[in-house]
Amino acid sequence: MKYLAIGLGFNLFWLLAVWGQYQYVTLLMSLLIGCWLFYRRCFPYALLASVIGIGGDYILFQLGVMQFPLPTDPLFVPFGYFIPLWLILLWLGFTSMVWIMREQVQRLPLWGVIIGGSLGGAVSYWTGLTLGAVIWPYGELVTFIGIALVWSIYSGYLLWLLRRMSKRGSV
């Protein structure tokens, strides 16, 4: 029941980030801070794990694989040159959720994490496309396959980092 609630909570977080974009940035930040205060050991993992995802999305953005609608609020305009703040917060929320569910995630075989992560990640970005949060100039099929491949790497990295940081017990 605990993991169902965590999964539903993350899906709500995802919806606020992707559908709401800049409209709910303050709420997203508040939820992250609350999560990190409650699950203190989650913060270092979320930061280390998110760096790769944020960097990867930035590379995809620079290569023109993904484009984002420009923010209308002048406060967020600088993110038009990077990736959206809501996407950065989404990465931090996702990796926080992975840490919170680490016992369940670590029970999965590597191939299951890679296949599930690659498809789940690609479907998540495709759903963002349908909600108008992202634009795929190279078309849906090619971009979906490319994002699935990138997410297979992300997923392996997230599991590796999760196992490494869980073993240490220092985080």
UniProtKB/TrEMBL annotation:
**Ion transport found in the keyword field:** no
- Give the record's keywords alphabetically: Membrane, Transmembrane, Transmembrane helix
- One matching Pfam family is DUF2878
Q: Which InterPro entries match?
A: DUF2878
Positions of transmembrane segments: 12-38, 45-61, 81-101, 108-135, 141-162
Coiled coil ranges (UniProt) are: none
Q: What is this protein called?
A: DUF2878 family protein
Tell me what organism the protein belongs to.
Photobacterium piscicola
Classification from the root reads: Bacteria, Pseudomonadati, Pseudomonadota, Gammaproteobacteria, Vibrionales
